[in-house]
């Protein structure tokens, strides 16, 4: 199916799935006969553009999936008249955040996925969506992030910046996200753990970077951290830090070595089983986790 002939005249339709077709164009009035539609899936088609007011009559639309298309930009009025809460624009060809289009759903949008696009730049006007809770920007072309990139997102709870080689003043950048609970920065080219002023953060993913050291100064503000992933970094020692309520720690695929009881140069991944747990009692972080009955077997996926 390359295009949809005519208009859907299904007055009481609530869910419409058109994924995995070959749609390249949509008529302006394609969905005007579906005023009760709540969920629309147009993913994995060949759409390159959407008409102005494409979804104008869909006042009940809450979930819109446009992922896996060829969309480069969105017109200002494309979401006019809708109350979209979840919008998936991942795996398209967007190079500039379509801020003007988001204005139409600025008070309803809560979940925005822009992963796997071509976005290079953010600024203070990028996200005029004050109710946003989840934002996914993974696998774009972001490099330098201005301090005010997230200034309008005070209520954000989850942010994914993975697979972007980012340079930023992270302390200032995240100053505007006081309620953030989940932060994903895997494969961001990090060589040190940035100081994050995020006292409510529960989950931090720093896997697949080039981090060599983690000390207390790096995590001083992370008083609510429960899960920390440092998979596939360059750590050669168990981090000597205290995280009061940490429950899950993943240090797998690091070149960590220990020296204990005559075992010199013994790789953690190769050598440590339950019998080696005592070797880590000198490390506050591991000792803390043991006391919380988290450690059972190793390698360290806790």
Automatic annotation (TrEMBL):
Claim: Signal is one of the keywords in the record: yes
Per the record, its GO cellular-component terms are:
plasma membrane
What is the species listed in this Swiss-Prot or TrEMBL entry? Cotesia glomerata
Q: Which Pfam families match?
A: LRR_1 (PF00560), LRR_8 (PF13855)
Please, which domain of life does this record's source organism belong to? Answer: Eukaryota
Q: Which SUPFAM superfamilies match?
A: L domain-like (SSF52058)
How is this protein named in the record? Answer: Chaoptin
Keywords assigned by UniProt, alphabetized: Leucine-rich repeat, Repeat, Signal
